[in-house]
Protein 1
Amino acid sequence: MIDGSGLVPAYARQPVQFVRGAGARLWDVEGVEYLDLQTGLAVNSVGHAHPAVVAAITEQAAQLIHVGNLFHTAPGAALALRLAESSLGGRVHFANSGTEANEAAIKMARKARRGGDVVSVHRGFHGRTYGSLSATPQEAKQAPFAPLVPGFFSVAPTAEALTAAIGDETAAVILEPIQGESGVYVLEDDVLRAAREACDRHGAALIFDEVQVGLGRTGTLWAYEHSGVVPDLLTVAKALGGGLPIGAVVTNDRFAEGFEPGDHGSTFAGGPVPCAAALAVLDVVGDPALLARVRETGERIRHVLAELPAVVEVRGRGFMLAAELDPARAEPATDLVGRALREERLVLNATGPTTLRLLPPLTITDAELDDALARLARLLDPQESR
């Protein structure tokens, strides 16, 4: 078993070494099988080692791995068109991750406004690089790295607060349609509409951070489709590469010419192998039948979770759900995650002391879901195991 002694301790790693994955299942170094409801934090949305993704990576890697962004490649050009045509219709700028995509979107918005403030909302999470961290109003994440980038402000996630905060000095508003890292909080449609209306009134850019919530996780390809509120800039990453690092900013026509050569760049962004993988991912998650199943099955999961012992609230949409636990009846969620791994071979995630987050692969079978929920029930109610 690898002990990780050579690594900087930036992560609270579980004492498990995974060596193989297939679909919704993982195997550790000792051959023990697990069910995965974490999916690498919403990365493996099409499951582990999806055959189409593996084939796309293998074929492209045998042809061309990297040339940089001073040249064109077919996968990059095709993916840019695919992303734009499926959403905002403008153009695409590639990055390597969600935080980098958000950095690029913020820079586009500020350049268009020649400066200006950036407004976010409480509980938001937009990344850990300095611009995106400055838009992440969480004291524990920001305080150790102060001073942050000036000109970032956060308000309550309400229509009234956003309307009051957005003015002529605002360059951008950045929102997650569903706030993932803070515990899966859905921003109501009136909040999104108020942001859109205020941005239109004052000429600010509306950025939707769909890094975690996009690409079919809620049962539509893009989460903004549920509300009908369309942003100016859309950021995406996590699930896009099927496990390979890739992010993107999708613009509308207003921002399509937002960057000029030299304004922004990244050595590895939009490489042919991750782009080939992303095209295969889009083939899977764009299937209307799969999206319909995510919507319908997500509702079934919600009802099952709501009936589990110690669960007092269920939040989310589709296959992005949180179960809020009664602290008087359940152990801390972080402890429960560890016990789930050891006792039930179930991979879960805790976003706080009382919150379990479930991010199953979109391709998980009904039988696997039922098995996973039964394992969770046994964890929350010892009577279930008798």
Protein 2
Amino acid sequence: MSSDMADGELDPLSVFRLDGRTALVTGASSGLGHRFARVLHAVGANVVVAARRLERLEELAAAHERMLPVRVDLADAEAREGLVAAAEARFGHVDVLVNNAGITDPTPIEDETLDYFRLVMEVNTTAAWHLCKLVGPGMIAAGGGNVVNVASMLGHVGGTPVKQAHYAASKGAVVNLTRELALQWARKGVRVNALCPGWFVSEMTEGMDADEGSQRYVKANTPIPRMGQPEELDGALLLLATGACSFMTGQSVIVDGGWTAR
């Protein structure tokens, strides 16, 4: 037995704590973002929860101390600036940014509209870029921070027969935005990584878990033949949001049951 273990000094779980740190989570009113906010709070973080549905955010914050609900439309640049201002006014600078919010409406490209494509890019990609730009200086001034860009396995592979060119394009952009910002900020103490879920039970995939055709499709193409559950992202989130990733930046952690391993 090594001396540090004998003395009780080895504490590998300590790097997963966020006591006294502040996390900002977008898309926190439901689904994966709702879970992410609760997980970060559970490891000690102050959490700013942001989304359009304020009543859901207020319900979440009422059950958790150190949580600030902020209504925001992420398609609005001024609203994004107001979100970061509110977070900093309440808790000081942001230590952890989780760019989780996203939208999609699966449809063939022939039926997509230019306006909707622009909206998806604004919410899924531009908003992530903008929030990074807004919180980055505070992280750098404080000596470091973590950005977790929630992309998708569809940022790495195509989605057809679930046709959503707008979503795949936006998430592919987020993956490479992650790489670029990681390079720009690596020597400034800020780590930027992407969390890329596969098919998970969430508001965005509502109905898939009960639809026989969807389940046949998922089971036939996923080596672990099922959809993921939100709690199965807890470990990956904490890896990327805490000091556990101190020598890791610019990476995509793909949690997809093996979908992209083929």
Protein 3
Amino acid sequence: MSVVPNTVALERAERAVFAHDAWVDGGWQRDVLLRWDVSGILTEVTLGATPTADVAIAAGPLLPVMPNLHSHAFQRAMSGLTELRGAPADSFWSWRTLMYRFANRLKPEHIEAISRHLYIEMLKAGYTSVCEFHYVHHQADGYAYADPAEHAARIVVSAEQAGIGLTLLPVLYQYSGFGARQPLPEQRRFIADTDWILQRISQLAQAYPGNSRRRYGVAPHSLRAVSPESLTAICAGLHALDASAPIHIHIAEQAKEVEDCRATLGARPVRWLLDHQAVDQRWCLIHATHMSDEEYRDVAASGAVVGLCPTTEANLGDGFFDAARYFAAGGRWGIGSDSHVSISPAAELRWLEYGQRLLHRSRNVLASPTVPSVADHLYAGALAGGAQAAARPIAGLRVGQSADFLTLNTEHPDLAERPSDSWLAGLVFSEHGAAPIRDVTVAGQRRVSAGHHADEALALADYRAALAELLA
């Protein structure tokens, strides 16, 4: 007599994993059983469990995976192309001119190829979610495509193909500087009004509905690029569409921006924003590099997240964010790879701490009295803040959160023979060859196995073809 397999039991087993070690609620726990539902949401996290024959055993310790809260995907293709001094005083502003020239060459197929390759790189490096701050909306002449959401849709499709979670943030961009200065010719691809942005969000949500792996928000680019009236209108319009949707904004990245804001609006950028908008948990303030003592305190009290991108901020010469001061005030924060000169979450955390060591001339600055391991403290903070900024259920190995986790390779020289309480320190503060990451799972689906993504070769070929056209 033939045996009919118990399909329900098999499917349930495939939606489970047992790990001898897993990082749960900020610490390593032994013998952890995870189960998730068909949508990839964790339904069970059991500590001290016993492995059973029908459940796979993880090949190493399981670690919840870091959200990337700030990305400009197309800038991945610029990496290494701007490291030449073109003026006696090279700066963010001269880099921005080069970026505009590059952005004006992009075609829809380039956007898709670059994004897909980048998102696979992110997965392999240990990001399973990305907040895409998307502002290349139109054709090079500034006119809309036949499908006005052409580029945004390419990003959504690229994320789906790669298997990464996405929070898409269409950008409101109106002006070239404070005082409603007319846009520069090279900015015409970015320019949109409030209604156009809100229409695109509605269009995208209809074509590609939101779920636990996909979310929509909005990004007023910066105080210099939108009017006070438009900032209020876009926030109100988004609230009408989705009252809990995230709002991201570049702010106080450069000292010149602070000076120009004071001259035009009569206040520093962060102070003005706090005084004129209901800044709360929905908001993510990208960079916030140049703040006063009062602003550090009041941003922390608001519940907003500060989005820190240390490798990009160093590359652009932005300056030091005083994380020690902000952490002491209880501020929330996360990390992003921004321009993608680095695609490693460990590098962002490492350089965040190293920046503080240089600033304060001390070591292990960002540890806490209750968590003396600086790597553990950083990882927990970035995980929580990144999940809040993404506005998706990706806050770790907890019931109700997405089954997003990576499998560490404890045979890697940076982790081998070390006790579990130093694994995160080995991941964050050591860099010797490939990262000690074996597998990456997103919403319960294995996306990276033994360090490889199934589509990485094809995505790389498409990326190289796009790059060849862009640089011809």
Protein 4
Amino acid sequence: MTATLDGRELILGVTGSIAAYKAVYLLRDLTRRGARVSVCLSEHAREFVGPLTFRTLSGRPVLTDLFDPQSDAAVEHVALAERAAAVVVAPATANLLAKAAHGIADDFLTTVLLAARCPVVVAPAMDGGMWLHPAVAANVAALRARGVTVLEPDTGALASGLSARGRLPEVDVIVEAVLGALTPARDLAGERVLVTAGPTREPIDPVRYISNRSSGRMGYALAAAASRRGAEVTLVSGPTALTPPPAATFVPVQTAEEMREAVLQHAGRASVVIKAAAVADYRVRHAADQKIKGKQDLTLELTPNPDILAEVAARAGDVFIVGFAAETTDVVANARAKLTAKGIDLLVANDVSRRDIGFDAEDNEVLLIDRWGGSRALPRMPKAAVADAILDELVALRRAHPARKAVR
């Protein structure tokens, strides 16, 4: 199981939508995960983003004209489709959906789609009420009936100024769909996984709060990976700028007390609890009801927040519990001490003093320590890959130690 896409051949099709610029970010994410991506632009896509941008980021020629005699790839559309592990079309216009549904192959991209025998993921983007038009709905239904993954567009402001369903799904949603299409194994099927993510905010007054630098990326990556691997996922999250995995039950919270209540409410039916949230250790004992005025010195009396991880572990029974340790010094020693003190099964430790990993970074480099004496260091990699590696370890430990309750 991996979310790195190392060495996988992908085709990224881009059509003539104002959202074509977002395909640049999608390409960057796919290549960063190790994919080898060939970009195929429709004629009108080139009016929005030039081939040079895609060629620079992919390191490969950009495919545009099926009948370009100067292009070696122009006559290889069938072979290219056969080599690909997946084809992704983002953005996909209503016109592309219609052509794909009816088998029309009049350019490089539609010819590739007709020749492809690999998973196909389509991310629509269109204006106004086009997505709801009966013709578009019929085309989408036909594609889905053939096994094509057609994502639901987002709702929001469109290029016309209207607010409706038709926005291109976020890049992380598209990437998850690709990973899902390429991950047939569902080794967490039947598991009910509760994940916490993000920071908490402890109010000082109605406009100020105490918090930390957690972005929530690690927890969200874990929730997405567990969902992709077949688990029923509940994500309890503090405030972040991230989009929750679409298949997860999302429970937003603000404070540590709210997170505790939500976790205890959902932990009773969970088989796995992953506490990736960076819960504030302290809260203001007496938060002000009104905005504090002036620039004078201010003294805050802080009181400890509840230890949610320890409380869940004490009540866990046969639940497998994963905790996180964000350390700045003596990472290994502090991590082992926390593993023992909390009474959990697996602890993920990382050095948050480094700017290239940990808080608010796209990558992480962690140490996995389990309560049976094992340890495993993971090299620096994208957090999505770290998430799958953590779940790999979890699955292996559950298989090796099925009678967890007896030795807790």
